[in-house]
Amino acid sequence: MAETVTKGFAYRFLRDIAQDLSRKDLKFPTFIDASLSVRMALTKKDLSTGELARVVSSEPLLCARVVALANSAALNPSGREVSDVKNAVMLVGQNAVRTLSVTLAMGQISHAKELEPFKQQARELWEHCLEVAALAFVIGKRRGLANPDEALFAGLVHDLGHFYLLWRATQFSELVAQPDELRAIVHDWHTGIGSALLQSLDLPESVSRACDEHELAPALLPPGSLSELISLSNRCAASRANVTPPDVIADDEWSSGTLDEATTRAILDEASKEVEALIAVLKG
To answer: What are phi and psi of 26, to 5 degrees?
Structure first.
C-alpha cells in the first residue's frame, strides 16, 4: 500500500470498522436505485408475502437485516434457524418487514451522496450479487446442492463487505484519490469484513462462512456445502460477464468435489433462460 495511504490510515480505518461491527443497526448505502425501488414498492398496500420477499431480496443489506430479525430471540424464541428471505418474511410478518425496510431504505438514501464517486461500481456490484444469487439458486436446485432458497440469500449478501468498504473509503480522501490502492484493499478485505458484518447480525454461520470463503476455489471447499456452491456461482458469474476470459480459468477453478467443469457448463447452458428470468424478477 502506498505511503500516503498507510500513514495513520490503517489504524483509523480499522478503528471505524470495529466500531461499526459492535453495533447491530448498520445503515450504509449499497446501490441507491435498489433502495429507491424498495421505497417505491412498499407504498403498495396489497403486496403478497411472496411479492414482499421479492422486494426485500432486491437489496443486499435489507435482506440480511430481515433474516437477522427473523433469527432474533424476540421473534424466534424457538431458536429454529432461518436462512432464507421467504421464510424470514413469513416469520417476521409484513408490518415489521415494512417498518424495517422503510427505515433502512431512508437511511441508505440519506447516505447515497457519499457513494457517488463509486456509483457505477456499486451498480455493477449489485448486478453481480443478483447474478450470483440466481446462479446459486438454479445450480443448487438442479443438482440438489445445499438449500436453493438459502443459496439465493447467501448469493445476495456474499459481497456485502465490498459495498461496506466502498462506503467507508468515501470518508478517507486519500483512498478515493488512489483507486489502485482501494482496489487492493477491497480485494484483500471484503470477504473477511463481509463475514464479520453477517456475524454481527447473528446470521446463520453457514451463510457468513460462505461469504468468507467465496473467493476460494470450489475444489478447496467441502463438497455439497453452501460455501462450495457460492464459490462456484461467483466464478460462473465472472465468466458470464467476461470478467475473466473462460479459457484463462483453470480447471480447478471450475471443478469441485461435487461438479466437474463440463457438468457445470452444461447446467449453465441448459438453465440460462431460467437464470435470466430470476435475475429479472430480483431486479423488479
So the answer is: -60, 135
